[in-house]
Amino acid sequence: MLSLQEAIDFDLDAMTSGFGFTPWAPDTCPTLEQLMASSPSSTSSDDNAAACGEENEEEERRRQRRKMSNRLSARRSRARKQQRLEELRETSARLRAENRELAERLHAVARHTLAARCQNARLRAEAAALARRLGDARRLLALQRLARRHVTPPPPPPGGAAACAAPAAAAAVLASLMA
């Protein structure tokens, strides 16, 4: 920091060196003590302090408004987040219920399909058995027709048991074919 004399010398040197202009005449130039003692500097420091205090108060008010605004914004953000979370929970519950319903329907359809397949297998087996019986009946009928055409039974003997044995044997063969 400069001493008082250095400050006086500095100011005068700065004013007169190279500029060619002095704001005061040499006899009317105030001294540093006079300048320091003058009231405008002391009031300006009071004004500066008051202005600084007002600036600090204004800055504090702005800071408080920002804090309040940030708190409200955070509260709104948390509320939106909570609302979104509730919506997601509702959607999840609805989708889970729908999933359970679809799974139940799938199981019912699977049971119905299994029952239909079992019934189809039973009906196919029954159809195959009936087709075999029909084929056997057709063969028997064809044999009966053939037997009637080619085999003409001799006239029955007047009381002979051997004569009755041939038609009985043919009937037994036909009965075995039918079964």
UniProtKB/TrEMBL annotation:
Gene Ontology BP, a term: positive regulation of DNA-templated transcription
Record keyword Transcription present: yes
Pfam families for the chain: bZIP_1
Organism: Oryza meyeriana var. granulata
GO molecular function, one term: DNA-binding transcription factor activity
Name of the protein this chain belongs to: BZIP domain-containing protein
One GO CC term on file: nucleus
Domain of life: Eukaryota
Stretches with biased composition (Low complexity): 37-51
Keyword annotations of the record: DNA-binding, Nucleus, Transcription, Transcription regulation
InterPro entries (alphabetical): bZIP, bZIP_sf
Lineage, top ranks: Eukaryota, Viridiplantae, Streptophyta, Embryophyta, Tracheophyta
Biased composition (Basic residues): 63-82
PANTHER family noted in UniProt: BZIP TRANSCRIPTION FACTOR 44, OS03G0770000 PROTEIN
Region listing for Disordered, in residue ranges: 34-87
Coiled-coil zones: none
Residue ranges annotated for the BZIP domain, each copy included: 60-123
Cellular localisation: Nucleus
Principal location listed in the UniProt entry: nucleus
